[in-house]
Amino acid sequence: MTKGLDRTPLTRDFFDRSVLDVAPDLLGRTLVRRTDEGLIEVRITEVEAYAGEADPGSHAFRGRTARNSVMFGPPGHTYVYFTYGMWHCLNLVCGPEGHASGVLLRAGEINAGAALARVRRISARNDKELAKGPARLATALDVDRSLNGSDLFAGPTPAISVLHGTPPPSDQVRSGPRTGVGGDGAHQPWRFWIESDPTVSPYRAHAPRRRKPK
Length: 214
Description:
- This protein is an alpha+beta fold.
- The chain is built from 4 helices and 9 strands.
- Strands 1, 2, 3, 4, 5, 6, 7, 8 and 9 form a 9-stranded antiparallel beta sheet that branches.
- Keywords: DNA damage, DNA repair, Glycosidase, Hydrolase.
């Protein structure tokens, strides 16, 4: 169990703000994942903001669908999607309700329950790699589509919740383009990370898929 951190739970009002305010403010917070096998905690070190209908990089850019409906609120829920036919990614929905937006959790440091995370992340070379990247983070935390729409404030022991943790000083927060986002959404500096933290994932620019010659 993590010691010396502020274990006060965040409130729903924390998430009922602009995604560009919530995203950097999530850095250093402690995400708690409760499973049947035990508790896992991760200090969030890297995130990306997605601003819904106003953001060409967002799943909700073209409006509400069955897949992205959770992004439209209310705030303080999880949005989990499946990508590349093999990986899940965990997002936290923020407000205001009716306007889709969410924060993708890209990386973090496992501070409690590392033994459970290692079982799920057997390819990790060390503990710094357990949640280094969005798919790795979701895998380490045993997150899949069954948690899509989970309420962070569902009673005293929700499946996922977020504690105050230890936010970094503002001069340690960096921002830049989002990883792998192309087109009109490629250049917004909406990826945020803690400078020099070893769990932050490497940046990769969008690489368009090339069609195979016929």
